[in-house]
Amino acid sequence: MNAIELKNVTFTYGKHMPGAVPALDDVSIQVKSGGITGLIGHTGSGKSTLVQMLNGLLKPDSGTVLLDGIDIWAEPKKIREVRFKAGLVMQYPEYQLFAETAAEDIAFGPRNMGLEGEELDRRVREAARFAGLSEEILGKSPFDLSGGQKRRVALAGVIAMSPKILILDEPAAGLDPEGRRDILGGVKRFSRESGTTVLIVSHSMEDMAMYCDDVIVMAHAKILMHRPTAEVFSRAEELAAVGLDVPLITRVAAALRKNGVDIGLDVYTVDYAADKILGML
Amino acid sequence: MKSDITFGQYVGGDSLIHRLDPRVKILIALVYIVVIFLAKSVTAFALLTAAAAVFVLMTGIPPRLFFRAMRPLIFIIVFTAVINIFFMRGEHLLFEFHFIRVYREGIVNAFLIVLRILLLIVATSVFMTYTTTPLALTDALEQLLNPLKKLHVPVHEFSMMMTIALRFIPTLIDETQKIINAQTARGADFTSGGLLKRGRALIPILIPLFISAFRRADELATAMECRCYTGGEGRTRMNSLKSEPKDWVFFSTILLLGAAVVCLNLFFPVAAVKL
Fold this sequence. Notes:
The structure holds two protein chains of two kinds. Chain A contains twelve helices and ten strands. By secondary structure, chain A is α/β, with parallel strands linked by helices. In chain A, the strands form two sheets. In chain A, strands 6-7-8-3-9-10 form a six-stranded mixed β-sheet, sandwiched between helices. Chain A has a four-stranded antiparallel β-sheet with strand order 2-1-4-5, covered by helices on one side. In chain A, helix 3 (about 100-110) crosses helix 4, helix 3 packs parallel to helix 6 (about 145-160) and helix 4 (about 115-130) crosses helix 6 (about 145-160). Chain B has helices at about 15-20, 20-40, 40-60, 65-70, 75-85, 105-130, 135-145, 155-185, 195-200, 205-225, 245-265; strands spanning about 95, 100-105. The longest helix of chain B is centred in the middle third of the chain and has 31 residues, at about 155-185. The interface of A and B includes residues 57, 87, 98 and 158 of A.
């Protein structure tokens, strides 16, 4: 069964205003259970809108959103349960922290689910472990932490709800390479260990290449393609046409190919490229 | 939620009224308001209504937008009308039921007072909110209040504060929406429970909002200092305001309108009422 399925979803912001352009135009996608899927697209292509469809923050004008085969709007009163099932980490989530300690903040979500006592404690610790937060950090005020640590507290706050689907909107934006690795590595470990389906929105092709099993490309409120990562990056020209890039190493591979050294078009990580080149020597 | 909050009602356009000097527009609006309060007779009100209609047409802004501006005041309008209809005493009794007495004077009075409120709304929308950007308004206000600097009133500082406040309203609305979304995504529930529970539910929104407002203020202060902002002393502007003859022609029109209203009050006091 598909963890996420969108059927002909259309959505327009301020649809009563003259000249309103749809943010999602007849979008259909299917995301299998358990993997890490990337969502890329230029600014304004509808990525964030699509992401907010998945946990019911926005309601489609037409079409259906299915999680595990269940229409999330079948019972509008139970939309809160959908939010626990599809955990969403918004852009720059460090600005939503509010509690006295990092641990308290992480507990906000699970507490809203009605959890308390030992189970709550266990969830907080587990989530902190995935996010790479030490015991010491948990006891600090979130406002005393560094930017990267705050980001990881916010991530832990969503992981602690044990969502079946974890959605991250630009989780690594504005972080240094180490911060990116910390946060995305934690997400990957969480996904592999718990079997959670993950959807990552990102601008960074390198991150996509490194962490995603398959990639959805959006352009102009529509889905341009949804393919395994290698295949997406082998179609560099189509990506360039909608203002997107391929990873640097893929461009290197293309340049090598032009100059007579063909290591294939599906090269998108440095390690893989190194193996290929070594193999040819 | 975002679309429910309309602030800064400026409606773009390129009409004569849009292009008037904002300082003169403020003066015009002030005089116009005084003129509206001077009107006492039905004839004067008729003239003012006709004038208001002409101004509205001159702006080129769809008239329905002006009705929209009246909507928030509907309660006050109805309330004033009711008070006047039922509690105004006069000579021509129209209707009596127990202690309720409705006089013709009451109805006329109610009608004119409501008309006056509507005219006031149209006056301020036409000359200020709809045709002048908030920024131009604060700029103009600063210059109009400039003489107060002699009395050591920090006019520039007040105007800068107002400009900044106006500038950040949309930003903060945006920010609030984002925080609400983020907390909703974590299962926060703002719509159920008693007063206390709902009040408590606001904490996860208000704290991040305050923090971010302070952060923005701090960043803005740094950015302003980096650009050597030291207050109003000796500061020049990119768009200095210049009043042209057309501004003063328009201003005179309003003065004439005032004179006409006074004449109508005096010489054609049709159903002149206590207002």
